[in-house]
Amino acid sequence: MPSIPQASEDTFAGYLWNRLLDGGVRDNIYDYGGGLKDGAVSVWNGAVNFGRQAYRHLGGDVRAGAESRAFEAGIQSYATDSAVRRAVNREIYNQATDLSNYSARNIGRVVGRFITGTLARPAGLVAGVGDGTARLEEGGNFAAGFIYGN
Q1: Which of 113, 127, 128, 130 could bond to 146 as cystine, CB 3.0-4.6 Å?
Q2: Positive or negative, the Cα torsion across 99, 91, 150, 112?
């Protein structure tokens, strides 16, 4: 069987053709599909995280009350202190401009979370809050947890 010739990568068409030949496009499609699945599953995991935290709060867990006060203080600080607001906005900007976040799998994960969260409306918001709060408890970033899951 004759081999299919490679193209010059000087043009987008040539680059795409070579990626088709070496299987890169296929791999990206599979990664995107895996990300969609991960995103859909993470919405339900986030809803479970939210439920666990709500149960802890309703049960009178002392740590949960302290976390709640710290979260409220953080929101108040963001609303009133411009230095805190700049620092948080800078971190969100850094997350958004970090090109390693834009792999096919991560894009699929965000889209999967969005689609599942939209179809299961209250569960989507609850999941984002649950994942964001769980990430905060681990010492991480609420915005990253809300968007990418935990």
Answers
A1: 128
A2: negative
